[in-house]
Design goal:
2 domains, alpha+beta, two-stranded antiparallel ribbon, elongated, 5 strands, 32% helix, three-stranded antiparallel sheet
Length: 131
């Protein structure tokens, strides 16, 4: 997987992922144009959408009709000496059987983004001078 960000404004960037394009920017208070979510908001969006898709895929494989679901991810960036905090809320229809709710709760924590954020991350960084 690869994403490439290219500047189009003060802090505004177009991000290419395969044949898709998304945007990122900073809030006006941070000097941006607020033309798109900031990178930290995109991280919360990645967690929310990955969790929702993982739950829905699991339910489909099981043949469960779970109806509409919603996942909310709130992100509090780490301050020095403190962990990064995510508050994840999974909203399921109230008439789902308790055994399905229990299983979907377990599965929600197994989405690839959740596992990535929960595990050890390594970076291989390099600089290329162009132009």
């Amino acid at each position: 997987m690869k994403a490439t960000a290219r500047r189009t404004g003060t802090f505004t960037h177009e991000i290419d992922v395969r044949e898709h394009r998304v945007m990122a920017d900073e809030h006006r208070e941070a000097g941006g144009e607020d033309a798109a979510p900031n990178p930290q908001e995109l991280l919360a969006a990645s967690l929310a959408s990955c969790t929702a898709i993982t739950v829905e895929m699991y339910a489909k494989r099981k043949g469960w009709e779970i109806g509409p679901i919603e996942v909310e991810a709130e992100y509090t960036p780490a301050e020095r000496g403190a962990p990064t905090r995510f508050k994840l809320t999974l909203r399921l229809p109230k008439d789902l059987p308790s055994d399905q709710v229990e299983r979907l709760t377990v599965i929600a924590a197994k989405c690839p983004i959740h596992r990535t954020l929960d595990g050890e991350v390594m970076f291989d960084e390099r600089i290329e001078l162009v132009g």
